[in-house]
């Protein structure tokens, strides 16, 4: 590696990634004593839970528990608890109907309700501030009592985290329900059958507030799932609120209290045992912090939450008997989890209503949906079961994999086409590197995602491998070829750059600028000037170049000039030679090794920036990704520029251009235009239309360069002058434009012109002798009178049929 700096940067990155976690107790012996304290407190809370009875916690009646968060002295807004329970009960009633509300109280007579037994899934919906809010008195907390202990004394903070200030927004929930004997309590129902009654459950909730800046907050809630009624009861657990230890007291009925107590007695004992035996030495196993927002004793306190959720019964059209829907649903669940290939209707989505209440911050919110809102405004929170989501993800990755395979196929075809140096020299290095960067980015992100999504490892790695092939074998190979072919050109550019940087009082520079002025003015350079400039080219003095061809190096795309470029760097300009001699350096342009490093550093930086961007506020994040998409989808622009700069066309196959334009847009169409995309990204058809339009504008520009000439949109002085192989042959009075290619053909009376004047005058075509193919050619020539508009009209296409190679005097 030429430059050690990128290497050092990578080492530092690796060090940061793999350095030990400072929070892990192994590095802090003091945490062990804290752990013992925590275990003692938890055991105390657990014994309190075991010995308590229904109704022991009734703030209205001034009855309190001796568990942190449930104490009177803490002044939380528990007085509103009954109203919250009442609200949650209303939601249950709306979901399962008046007839079944007795289920909450343990009367499980009659048919079983069609509820999923395993509600693991991904849910999305909107929330609104609950009408209860007005009834809740916001507790006046002594903030300094909660200040976390920093290295320089208590840290002051203005407000708790997760304090809801807006009135509505979006939320998403990730529900996971583990199986295992330890997590479930079963009992007999009224037919004497043993059924599961309650199971422990974990929900990760993200709440976005429309009115406040930022991306909302995330919280992890632990609680229980009442399997008979489809209810969920969840709470946060921290030092100031040991929610899970008082959970039974938040249940809606004595029956639910009983089974919750039974389950928690079992699960909490297990967790505390694990903690004390050192099997899982964490301070708070029920921490509300998620991977994205970890919580510890140093972070500012957050608002606590108690959440009631109610599953909506599934409506599947089976009426054979009352139990049929729930039997079918059971069967569906079984089939989803352990597929046997049975043909079943598609599994209905999970749907929940939700009421959340914060005892310490005194706010309440609920999901938006009936009966308070019409269904068009909100359908509470719903989403697919996790298995369905995985099937969906697998299908979408498969689709994306075939897009990648098609891209690879197009690239290999293009590689085969660009097998000669002359075709390679036309291809823009930057266009191909942008495409390769995109593939590299896909590889990296698929590998990263595969680490976090368990069910989709194989398809993700498969797709990542395809794009890895695309970038590392074919893309890099192509880039290397292009780089090698274009090396002399870059070296010359480098010399010119240094020449321009050198003193402007240089006499040669003055001469050069004079010459530039001459060509800008349109005056043909004198023969002596030409001979001087192109002294080393053997044909230079015999072939005075046309006005526009001061530097033959830039023209390219011809078998006559290109090979001489490749053999040796053209150092024929007096200014450059002098400068090189003057500075005594002969530095070459950066080699491919440096380019390679730069490529991967850019890829890594983009990846890390994007990873970071996933935690940015919503609008900023969206802006960042749209900008990134826009930059990426500008991949044809360097090719358009190169075509114009070298005045050549048709660098890439048309199927490559069209195919890549469609295929590279596919992922964006998916995320911006497809509602059930795996990331649940919001549909934004306007952004998608802008991106698609941008790609196709570029593609159309490429096509137009083929038809109208590579520089049709540019002013004359934008690009260095270049030789035009398809000049419009003009018959003006002096015949000044005619000589290009066939100077003898300036007038019909010329001895070497074998035109038949009678015919040629009719259709504006002249006969020429082609010296190479030794044939007579009929070439359209613009008459003196028709002027410029003819050149832009039909003549444009006609002149693509001939090519004038070497200008002739
Ligand atoms: C809690 O579990 C213990 C055994 O682990 C049992 O002795 C006790 O009776 C249980 N308490 C309740 C309230 O179920
Ligand atoms: C509450 O529990 C603590 C231990 O956590 C104990 O010191 C205190 O005496 C208890 N208070 C009452 C009123 O039981
Ligand atoms: C708030 O708490 C701090 C520290 O716990 C205490 O010093 C202060 O007196 C309290 N303020 C009030 C108004 O209770
Ligand atoms: C939460 O925000 C409200 C303002 O919306 C404020 O009055 C209240 O004190 C905050 N609560 C906490 C605990 O920071
Ligand atoms: C629920 O389904 C998920 C995904 O298939 C599975 O991992 C989990 O163990 C299931 N839980 C229960 C209680 O069956």
Walk me through the structure.
With 809 residues, the chain is α+β, with helices and mostly antiparallel strands. It has 3 domains: 25-338 and 346-384, no CATH class; 391-493 and 593-702, no CATH class; 723-809, no CATH class. The chain is 43% helix and 11% strand. The chain contains 24 helices and 14 strands. The chain has helices spanning 4-18, 29-51, 81-96, 247-250, 254-276, 324-337, 386-417, 421-426, 429-452, 457-485, 487-501, 507-521, 527-533, 562-567, 574-583, 592-613, 618-632, 637-646, 654-663, 666-673, 685-708, 757-763, 788-792, 794-798; strands at residues 121-129, 149-150, 153-154, 168-176, 184-188, 194-207, 217-226, 231-235, 306-311, 350-357, 364-367, 381-383, 765-770, 775-780. Strands 1, 4, 5, 6, 7, 8, 9, 10, 11 and 12 form a 10-stranded antiparallel β-sheet that branches. Helix 11 (487-501) packs across helix 15. The longest helix is centred in the middle third of the chain and has 32 residues, at 386-417. The radius of gyration is 38 Å and the shape is elongated. Residues 518-586, 733-737, 739-762 and 787-792 have low confidence and may be disordered. The site of one 2-acetamido-2-deoxy-beta-D-glucopyranose has 5 residues, from helix 5. Residues 44, 66 line the site of one 2-acetamido-2-deoxy-beta-D-glucopyranose.
